[in-house]
Amino acid sequence: MLKRRHFLKQTSIVITGMIIPLPMFSNTNKNNMKNQFQYDVIIVGGSYSGLAAGMALGRALRKILIIDSGDPCNKQTPHSHNFLTNDGKTPKQISSLAKAQVSRYETVSFLDALATAAFKKENGFEVQVQSGEKFSAR
What we know:
By secondary structure, the protein is an alpha/beta fold. The chain has helices spanning 4-19, 21-26, 28-35, 48-59, 91-102, and strands spanning 41-44, 64-68, 108-112, 115-120, 125-129, 134-137. It has a 3-stranded parallel beta sheet with strand order 1-2-3, with helices on one face. Helix 5 links the parallel strand 2 (64-68) and strand 3. Helix 4 packs parallel to helix 5. It is flat and about 60 Å long.
């Protein structure tokens, strides 16, 4: 008859041997799918809503690319009004502060470029910038 300690040691070795190899086989397809994409999400536009989405996804540890041409639609606005904690600031000041906060998340990347096309692919999306470079996301 096995002593309790010996039994626990033997069963833990067997269980560990059964558990460790499983992810290597069951996630093979997932890993291959994941590796074909550079990013989880690509956000086109790095102004307020793009940065807000980037922050939420960055906090969720998603790999994000924010593509921004630096030509916001609110560029003609001299100052912000009725925007709590930012009243009187320029849109540039507000978005600079927001970008600095989003930049703290290591999974968020920025690209200063103009997105010219986006394509739906079989299992994801591809975004092309003016230089011709393409980026993929699931």
